[in-house]
Amino acid sequence: MTLDEECRGCLFNSQMKKVERSAPDPEKFEQFKKEVRALCASAPHSSCAPLLMRGINEIHRRIFGSGIDYSAEKRMFNAAVLSMEEELFSHIMSSADPVEEAIKYAAAANYIDFAKLADLDEGAIENVKSAAARSVVDGNTLALLKERLASAKTLLYVHDNCGEVVFDKIFIRVIERLYPQISVTSLVRGGEIINDATMVDAEMTGLSKYSQVVQSGEAIPGTYLKELSQQALALFEQSDVIISKGLGNRETLYGEGFSIFYIFMCKCVHISERFNLPQWSTAFVYEGK
Q1: What is the dihedral of CA 126, 50, 262, 179, to 10 degrees?
Q2: Are residues 9 and 91 both part of a single domain?
Q3: pLDDT, tens digit (0-9, with 9 covering 90-100), for 35-82
Q4: pTM of the model
Q5: Residue 8: which pLDDT band, with cuts at 50, 70 and 90?
Q6: DSSP state, residue 3
Q7: C-alpha distances in Å from residue 173, one per residue of 51, 98, 160, 167, 182
């Protein structure tokens, strides 16, 4: 894990925009701003954006009495994508390659990220559709995933944000339709943090109809192995296939010794440079042991 300078500024700016709009007390907001600026400046390079975001949320909880509230945004995006779920599922299943098409939409949906983009509204769904249409899935990685799915009995799907969790649900439905022998487990956050998917979102979106939903044990916008519950850690160690969504999960899991298929959008310059892809393009990469 490493904390890029871009992450410090990005998290500071996005959370200031969010909190300033809702903070009832200007003096408390200035205190919050001062402490978050100090935290972003002092966070060690060996940290990462998800841990920094948890620190920002803890400052907000101490000053304002609660974490940063994204419940309205979560309800809006979950409902918006749910309204088109069956249409999207039918479209994907009727495509030439349903697995590839589902990956395109799942990757494009990673655009729904309030840690990076504080001013998202329902219009973001159209951006997701456009990004999915122009997505290119790496053929070798796709072939490897299909090979692993053909023989797998268990799959761990590590979720990221609200809204996009419905696109993940569609991908899971595709996998279960094509590979019915697979038992799918979904990993969601252990508590509310930014707009990340929790057990509440899993129930709201009907995710639990298609997979066993497990909480990570942590309220971090990533998957920090040192703080995972024993149940969640066992899933990483025992699952035949692991699919990880989003940059927060990639930042906390990449290089930790697990074989994982990562699906995300290159929303940051340093991520684009790391994978040699244009900014705002989608990515589907594999990391083996």
Answers
A1: -80
A2: no
A3: 999 999 998 878 888 999 999 999 999 999 999 998 988 898 899 899
A4: 0.93
A5: confident
A6: -
A7: 32, 11, 17, 10, 11
Same-domain status, 80 and 38: no
The 3-state DSSP class for residue 28 equals helix
State yes or no: pLDDT of 119 exceeds 70. no
Residues 218 and 189 in one domain: yes
Tokens of 256: 């930790």
Supply the range of the domain harboring residue 79. 71-287
Find the largest Cα–Cα distance for the chain. 59
Q: In angstroms, rounded to a whole number, what is the distance separating the alpha carbons of residues 126 and 266? A: 18
How many domains does the chain fold into? 2
Q: What does the alpha-carbon distance between residue 166 and residue 177 come to, in Å, rounded to a whole number?
A: 16
**CATH number of the domain bearing residue 277:** 3.40.50.10880
107 and 180 assigned to the same domain = yes
DSSP label of 182: P
**Residue length of the chain:** 289
In the sheet with 241-245, reading across from the earlier edge strand, the strands are 212-215, 183-188, 154-158, 241-245, 260-265, 282-287
Query: 63-70, long-range: CB within 8 Å, 24+ apart, which pairs?
Result: 63/28, 63/31, 63/32, 63/35, 64/23, 64/28, 64/32, 67/192, 67/193, 67/219, 68/15, 68/18, 68/19, 68/194, 69/22, 70/18, 70/114, 70/162, 70/192, 70/194, 70/195
DSSP state of 211: S
